Amino acid sequence: MSEVTQEHHWPCTSCGADLTYAPGQSDLVCQHCGHAQAITAASPAKKARSLGEIALAAGLAEADDTENTEDVRSTSCPSCGAVVEFSGASHAADCPFCATPVVVDTGTHRRQKPQALVPFALTEDQARDALTKWLGSLWFAPNSLLEYTRKGRTMAGIYVPFWSFDSDTASRYTGQRGEHYYETQTVSVMVDGKRESREDRVQKTRWYSASGKVARFFDDMLVMASKSLPKRLGNDLTTWDLAKLEPYSPDYLAGFQAEGYTVVLRDGHSEARERMEAIIEQDVRRDIGGDEQLISSVDTDWRGETFKHILLPIWTAAYKYSGKSYQFVVNGQTGEVQGERPYSWWKIGSVVLLVAAVVLGAVYLNDPSTLGLPEPSWMD
């Protein structure tokens, strides 16, 4: 099957300039004349189809047939004719020559297209305010870091791909339950150079065999399907309201960037399984009870496994300090901030010197002779 690159362009019906998606609204807005154009709402049938779960086995079988993907594509800008290159898995960007929002349809290099997305709710200014407030709460952050955000440096709005997994699980386990008890023992200790006997309470543990079953339904276990952000940052942004998912439409990408997944479904599923297994282990420990638990085996039956491929909105910013780059991300729906923070060693050094001065001052006031200094006259 030949791949067809689809271009999307949103001319304003009022002035002909380019429309962009307005965060928090259901409109495309012209930045030139202010004209707003509503995004066509998906029909109930299409919405149900787009937001429906896909059987995992079917998705993995399809992925096995499409391992060869195209990493670099290009398309002609519909406004100025420039050839816009899309590197990696990106499929949306502004034309670097005339800033026209251009989208290459997400099916151009993979068959598993995004089913849905959560539209941006925060504007760039709101995201910058959230980032500035977060940075202002950091101790020992360089002053230049706050100035970086306060000066209105550009942040990038990016739709980042995620896999969402569901699974119904039933797990049988075997192990042991440990219950603490205490015995009083006489021990010999040295006190002021003399050996004395003392009674101490010593903790011991009785172990009992344990076995049983636990069950849990996992709903929307999210795994970031991109490698462009540190995994810790992307996966920590977990306060998503997936009830706000909308069927995928290129209209929501107008004026924003978007990434295609670079973590394939099979690898995403493996990561989700690992995280689910860690939660199941916690369930097993609670079911065993006692003061300590030893788990010998856990046999899990995974049933009804499904997935969705979705895009979630993130505002990103990068900051260079002392030759190193630091990344910050803002949840484009809630305003939650995560980031890699630099430290100002000048600030840290100043605090260390201040603390040392306070300690020395306290010592001097209490006993000046310890520092080899004369007593202050007021102490005479």
What report would you give on this structure?
This protein has two domains: 7-169 and 213-285 and 298-343, no CATH class; 348-379. Helices cover 23% and strands 38% of the residues. It is built from seven helices and 17 strands. The strands form three sheets. Strands 1, 5, 8, 9, 10, 11, 12, 13, 14, 15, 16 and 17 form a twelve-stranded mixed sheet that branches. A hairpin with a 6-residue loop joins strand 6 (73-76) and strand 7. The longest helix has 24 residues, at 265-288. The N and C termini lie far apart (98 Å). Residues 1-6 and 65-72 have low confidence and may be disordered.
State the low-pLDDT regions, or none: 1-6, 65-72
Question: Could you give the distance between the termini?
Answer: 98 Å
Helix content percent band = 10-25%
From the alpha carbons, calculate the radius of gyration and give it in angstroms.
30 Å
Counted by DSSP, the helix tally is: 7
Largest sheet: 12 strands, mixed
* Total count of domains: 2
Average of the residue pLDDT scores: 79
Strand content: 35-45%
Q: Quick one: how many beta strands?
A: 17
